[in-house]
Write a structure and sequence with these properties.
Length: 332
Amino acid sequence: MKDISMLDDVDRGLIHALHIDGRAPFNKIAAALHVSTQTVTRRYQRLRATAGLRVVGLADPSHAGHTQWLVRLTTTTTTGQGLAHALARRPDTSWVKITSGGTEILLVVHIPRDAAASRSLLLRDLPRAAGITAVSAHYVLHTYLGGPTAWRGHTAALAEHQRNQLRPNRSDPAPGRALADTDAALLAALQQDGRATLARLAAATGWSQATVTRRLAELQATQAIFFDVEFDDAHFGATTQALLWMSVAPAHLDRVATALADHDELAFVAATTGPTNLVAQAMCADPEALHHYLTHRLGALEAIHALETTPVLVTVKAAGRLPHPDAAGRRP
């Protein structure tokens, strides 16, 4: 059996294809990759079993009526891991990471645009949790890289003609309904498995398969939802990951963030509130590569006048919901 740590062109092409259309049929992907449907099916199942491959359907925050907060929690060494897993089980969290030697947790909290609702996790639940010694919340003002825009490490395998073969057909220009409360069950099912069959989605929603098909088409056509691909990125060579908390003069913030969004080493770039106003996630091959990136590429941007680097030790939860309550964390 091929060593999973060595991805070949078919593996990389499959992952790239799923970023273009997370629900693309295997025969469509196979045609673009010039391999058999059986080969694509077999590779997909193997990567799911051994490298954490999962497609998840997510609501675009701007359509969902939610705000996003980056929350940093300082914890004791004895409580950090258990708290991270407890937070990962919540439906309103994503990207739960243990950082900084195991004494810090970073997570994204999704909060409805409702002042009363926003007080729940941020102002009541978190400060009262045992083992938390400090809380810092950063409101995400603008995302320059991330969300529907995938890390380039995942999307460098296919030529333009292959990408065109895989792009979903958006021939129907009719606008669909915006995301509504009635879509909650559909979104919850897609957050666990973006490639769930129509039969499973119909069972989860109580709708007919025809209604599920029509609603999915509406939500995708209006870009109210998108499909992300979760994967153990160590197999792409990103064995060293770090969060970069930067301070940039407001007059230069947009220029610097736009430049960073073009860096292959970064998977996420966003402007936030707080003592630092720009955050990014670096994906590097090793500590030496991270050092080179910090000193050469970031160091060349004089508008960045302060930088804090926090290494990511474990990603407990990525973008989608945990597949089951006892899901274990995985190393990035």
